[in-house]
C-alpha cells in the first residue's frame, strides 16, 4: 500500500556562543558587538549595522535601519525580521527603528 509523507516545516532554533554570537538554524548569525554596532552574517556575506544599546532599559537596542543596504538579493525587511527573531531569543528588545543615512 503506497503512503505519502508530508514534510512539516522545521522550526527555527537558535544557539548562543560564548563569544556572544546568536546563530540561527536558518543560516544567519549576529552579535551586538559593542554599544554602537551589530555584526550580521548570512550566506550572502557580512554587514555592520549601526545600532545603539540603551542604558535604560539595558536590554533595548536601537537599530538604525538606514545603515542596512536594501538590495534585491538581501532585502532590508528580511534582515530586520531576522534581527527581531534573534533579539527575542537573546532577550533583547527592538526598542525603536530610526532611519538614517
How would you summarize this macromolecular structure in one to three sentences?
With 101 residues, the protein is mostly beta strands. It is 15% helix and 38% strand.
What does it look like?
This protein has 101 residues and is mainly β. The chain has one domain. Helix content is 15%, strand content 38%. It is built from one helix and seven strands, in the order ββββββαβ. Strands 1-2-3-4-5-6-7 form a seven-stranded mixed beta sheet, with helices on one face. Helix 1 (76-90) links the parallel strand 6 and strand 7. The termini are far apart. The model has no long low-confidence stretch (mean pLDDT 86).
Fill in the keyword field for this structure.
single chain, 101 residues, mainly beta, seven-stranded mixed β-sheet, 15% helix, 38% strand
The DSSP helix count reads 1
N- to C-terminal separation? Answer: 62 Å
Got a strand count? 7
**Shape annotation:** globular
Low-confidence stretches: none
Q: State the strand order across the main sheet.
A: 1-2-3-4-5-6-7
Question: What's the order of the H and E elements?
Answer: EEEEEEHE
Chain-averaged pLDDT: 86
Query: Which percent range fits the helix content?
Result: 10-25%
- The secondary structure category is mainly beta
- How would you sum up the major sheet? 7 strands, mixed
| Whole-angstrom Rg | 16 Å
Q: Indicate the proportion of strand residues.
A: 35-45%
Structurally, the number of domains stands at 1
Amino acid at each position: 500500500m503506497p503512503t505519502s509523507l508530508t514534510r512539516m516545516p522545521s522550526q527555527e532554533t537558535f544557539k548562543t556562543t560564548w563569544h556572544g554570537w546568536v546563530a540561527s538554524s536558518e543560516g544567519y548569525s549576529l552579535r551586538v558587538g559593542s554599544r554602537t554596532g551589530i555584526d550580521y552574517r548570512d550566506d550572502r556575506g557580512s554587514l555592520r549595522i549601526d545600532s545603539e544599546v540603551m542604558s535604560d532599559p539595558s536590554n533595548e537596542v536601537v537599530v538604525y535601519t538606514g545603515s542596512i543596504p536594501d538590495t534585491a538579493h538581501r532585502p532590508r525587511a528580511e534582515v530586520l525580521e531576522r534581527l527581531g527573531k534573534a533579539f527575542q531569543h537573546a532577550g533583547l528588545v527592538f526598542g525603536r527603528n530610526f532611519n538614517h543615512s
